[in-house]
Structures are given as C-alpha cells and as structure tokens.
Specification:
By secondary structure, this protein is mostly beta strands. The termini are far apart. It has one helix and five strands. The chain is globular and about 40 Å long. A hairpin with a 7-residue loop joins strand 2 and strand 3.
C-alpha cells in the first residue's frame, strides 16, 4: 500500500521504532526517504542501513517535535530523561 502523505526522496523524517530484541523499548529515530531499490516506482525509508517500504502501516512524522509528541502520547513517558530535551540520541 502506498503512503498517502506526499514524501520526496532525500527528505528527512522521523519514525517511532521498537527494539526487535526488547518489544517494551521504543525510540524516535531519524530516517531518510529514498527510492525503493526493490520497487523502482515506490519510496522506502532508509534506517539502520536497511530499506523499509514506505506504507500506511508506518507512522512517519515530518518533524522531530511531532514524533516526540506522538511517542509521549503512545507510551506516556514524558517524564523520562531525553524526551523533550534539546539533545536527542539517535543511535
């Protein structure tokens, strides 16, 4: 399924991603919108040196602030260190 929000290759976006080894750990991660190497007419997210199809199943935010707000709404962890701070870890 194609993403209904228009994104363009080279755009930097933010996603909330869960740790695959510990499902109770999630963070906001920066990703790049790129051409999908498997579907030339489609777009993908380039994240952790891996391509992920850009679909409606992925919550993608245009700004870090929007992604952090959604994270706080979903996980209720607004009091945690790092959420809302000026320095954010992306690794």
């Amino acid at each position: 399924m194609e993403q209904s929000i228009p994104f363009s290759p080279g755009q930097i976006v933010y996603v909330i991603i869960r740790n695959p080894h510990s499902q109770d750990v999630a963070n906001v991660q920066q990703a790049a919108v790129v051409h999908n190497p498997e579907v030339p007419s489609g777009l993908a997210l380039f994240l952790y040196e891996t391509y992920y199809p850009l679909t409606n199943e992925v919550a993608v935010y245009s700004s870090l602030e929007d992604a952090e707000f959604a994270y706080q709404e979903a996980f209720g962890m607004g009091d945690m260190v790092g959420i809302g701070d000026t320095e954010t870890y992306y690794g």
